Amino acid sequence: MHKYYQPPEKDLWKGREDGERFHQVIQCLDLSKEKLEFQDKPCYGFLGFVSDEGVRRNEGRMGASEGPFAIRKSLANLALHQLVEAKFFDVGNIVCEDQNLEEAQKQLGEAVASLLNQNVFPIVLGGGHESAWGIHQGVMELHSECAVVNFDAHLDLRPLLEDQWGTSGTSFSQIAEGYKNRGKSFHYTCLGVQKAGNTSQLFETAEKHQVKIVYAENFCLGALGRIQEVISYHKPIHLTICLDVFAAAFAPGVSAPQAFGILPKDILTSLSLLAHSKKVVVLDIAELSPQHDRDGITAKLASNLIAHFLYEHIHIVK
């Protein structure tokens, strides 16, 4: 691991002692010193991406750098149920320092690739949605092509800044360019998109890349069909959730709250389908900004989304 790596903190994992909960089974693993030997159970690794830099460059509300810590604290107290059949590791954070987002993304990709090579399923906790480009760099080391399913109010297909720097709004443009440079195809599905939150130029870019879009107002009718298409035609899948896809009443703690976002319950069947597909190779949750949260409800939403995916996923990988 490089200088941007921060080992895990066991103190973040605390909770009630009245039954099996995440905090009771989490193991802290310092990637700079340890590697996993052969494991007899499915393994999941929680990796934080401590970054506000992409949001800052995108002129959004700052605060996402605290997201990974808030998600861990919320997840710690959730019940395990059948997840006792798996092993869970907190593998620390990649911390964006000195505003050097590009290096932080590179090191995030290296950490993701390291987990995948050790047969550990990465769950990346953000951080701004610039995390997606970093994660996908790691995925590309192992897979020549990987479809992206993004639950997001925004397409995040903005062009790079004049200095050729990326932002929290450029990740999927950068992934598209990465595949173009490799002579491969870019397969991108974005669900929960807000028409008012994306310019005509962004929709033109999406059309150029043949992006499959489901608008927020059509989410309940259109999301499952699109997901079934992805599952039928693509393997593997990078699943990414930007918390601003949800209505502000349920997710106030984000960089760009959405008045007409989707309802949390409406995403559950979609997550179940993806979990059961056996094709998802990495999951990430982005854009939690705890300083803008109310009673920690956005953090609780993030942790419950992770738990729901895991409840469904565990039986597939056993």
UniProtKB/TrEMBL annotation:
Keyword check for Glycoprotein: no
Domain of life where this protein originates: Bacteria
Family affiliation: Belongs to the arginase family.
Molecular function terms from GO: agmatinase activity; formimidoylglutamase activity; manganese ion binding
Keywords for the protein's UniProt record, in alphabetical order: Histidine metabolism, Hydrolase, Manganese, Metal-binding
Gene3D superfamilies linked to this entry: Ureohydrolase domain
Name under which the protein is recorded: Formimidoylglutamase
Metabolic or biological pathway: Amino-acid degradation; L-histidine degradation into L-glutamate; L-glutamate from N-formimidoyl-L-glutamate (hydrolase route): step 1/1
Pfam families the UniProt entry points to: Arginase (PF00491)
Source organism of this protein record: Parachlamydia acanthamoebae (strain UV7)
Residues given in the record as Mn(2+) 2 binding sites: 152, 154, 242, 244
Keyword Manganese assigned: yes
Cofactor: Mn(2+)
UniProt binding sites for Mn(2+) 1: 129, 152, 156, 242
EC number assigned by the record: 3.5.3.8
Function: Catalyzes the conversion of N-formimidoyl-L-glutamate to L-glutamate and formamide.
GO biological process: L-histidine catabolic process to glutamate and formamide; L-histidine catabolic process to glutamate and formate; putrescine biosynthetic process from arginine, via agmatine
HAMAP family: Formimidoylglutam
Catalytic reactions of this protein: N-formimidoyl-L-glutamate + H2O = formamide + L-glutamate
Entry's cofactor comment: Binds 2 manganese ions per subunit.
